[in-house]
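Morning!

As promised:
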Amino acid sequence: MAEPVSQVVASMPRAKFAALMALFLGPSVAIYTLFSIYPLIATMGLSTYTTDATGAYRFAGLANFVILLTDAVWSKPFWNAAWNNLIFFAVHMAVQNPIGIALAGLLSLPQLRFRGFYRTVIFLPTMLSVVIVGFSWSLILSPLWGVAEGALKAVGLGSWFAPWLGLPSTALATLALISVWQFVGIPMMLIYAALLNIPDELVDAARVDGLGQFRIFWHIKLPLVLPTIGLVSILTFVGNFNAFDLIYSVKGALAGPNFASDILGTFFYRTFFGNQLQLGNPTMGAAVATVMFFIILVGVCFYLFVIQRRLRRYAF
Amino acid sequence: MKTQLSWMRGGVALAALLTGFVAAQAGSLKIESWRNDDADIWNSKIIPAFNKHYPDIKVEFAPSAPKEYNAALNARLDGGTAGDIIACRPFDASLDLYNKHHLDSVNSIKGMENFSDVAKAAWSTDDGKTTFCIPQASVIHGFIYNEDAFKKIGAKPPKTIAEFHDILDKLKKDGTYTPIDLGTADQWEAATMGFQNIGPDYWKGETGRLALIAGKEKFTDPQYIAVFKELASWAPYMGNGFQAQTYPDSQNLFSLGKAAIYPAGSWDISTFRSQAKFPMGAFPPPLPAGDTDCYISDHTDIAMGVNSASKNKADAQKFLEWLTTPEFAELYSNALPGFFSLNKTPVKVDDALAATMVGWRKDCKSTIRNSYQILSRGTPNLENELWNVSAQVINGTLTPEAAGKQVQDGLDKWYKPAK
């Protein structure tokens, strides 16, 4: 089906049409170029240089990338961070998005009261500063003053408590779950909005056919919101592979213990800005940022070309 | 071939313009520092004292958060928006600024003769010929203890490791107090308050530090493994869930009177003075069996230099000259108990706890942290490695031997000692 074209636009002289395009697209192209495209290209440019002790830049081609991926001193922490990042993403996909979908499903139930209240409360943490979220959760989980241990004891599970944020086996998962707690409102809102768009006739027809709420959700509503779930997944992917702030605010740039919570964002920060006695290395940092960009690019392309094309869309 | 990336510089300049370029006016000085805790003292005591001599120079103390300081300062220096006076981190961070022509030499400043070579070493070029920051203060490591806790178990400050462990056992048995107040969550605490605190007694202070730089000693040598072993033995005496205990947690635990012994940096004194309600004492790192000479970490920590791009170097010079005076030394040491002036003129310290700690200089030999000079220049970074392994040794996830090996292997990857 051809896109409908406005009669006014179609009958416009070419020059006038171009001027109109410039008027509408110009500002966003200019701002986007200045603040997104230029920094991106400058970063890629910077990654092909090295610096000497006096701070002078010297062109080095792909040397930074070769070192990053082949020299164990760099590649080991890099792959460790990439792997941790993948786990961080997996926890979000396995916990945040299903819970988001379930909450959206519950919110869209017609019998539900206080809908606005629940929606606001669940979405609230998303608007909090990450520093506040990190600080609050460190306090809640603190073995010294936290309420977590007492709460577990109250239900007879005191022996389950451990200093989760400090153990190599649990630090990353704990941080990922804190992040899930904070951002679960976003998939909930997006999917809730998509659920509201489903025409009542479809749901009514299903009910006449004798389906209960759960089967209506599973067989009618969920397939209809799959494109939104795809969108949520790709947003989660991009967000997670750019994540940095929560881990930095809770664990610092060295993302301990023994780099168990190090993800690409903190690895990049350490490389670019340095840490305590480690001096920042802007050119190597730019190389890390470039690799991160390509990881995200590959992920997004995979989604666009492999998954999105197979999703069926329904027009109501 | 060297190419100047003018287009990139252009971007930086543009960003500086967009974020509001503020040039320093003549007659005013802006100080960059990571000591945001000290802002009050600078504004209420130090700057007014300076203004008594130079009423026309307006000084603004503009600190950043400690962990962002290096990154923020570098960005501001590159963008041309940094202040006139720069607080200098010791060794390479500042040497790097000097090599990149962000700091001026201070050799010609009047009053430089008030500082010893050791004091100047942290802010001099490797050949010792050029100094680029005025040494300001050092910090001393040791242990601060709760006197009530010691009274309860009838203990005196320990002189040897054996006595130290005896006290720890008694404290643990008594159960009222957490015997050792240290957490490994922030990692630096384990390395700085642990490894660098007790270590000098084992590696004989400067002797061992210089031997490491010369390549004559290695982190796999018995004296270094012994430090890690001692650290590992602390774990049973530390608080419940110490793996998730952060530095502020440790500070609070001690100032709330719930812990007995706090492995300390002298900078903690001012925090405890304002918060703790019980009598406190301090003892230097206890001596390992058979040793008689004591060594303390008396670490040159803070200095100040002039931004090469400052528009007001004449006033900046006057300010630096004032920093070399005994007047400033006395004012600073007493306004900030726990930061000890590096000035040759002895300063009378009023705070009892601070006076105790600085008093150790008489009996023990001073040294600085062994990772700071030269050895943290490469990748992997020695200081980061020490944070990592010290925390792991205490957590019990790495043996002392494996810790020594990891640190030395990392160092061997890039460091070739001069033969």
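The mean pLDDT of chain B is 90.

Hope this helps with the figure draft.
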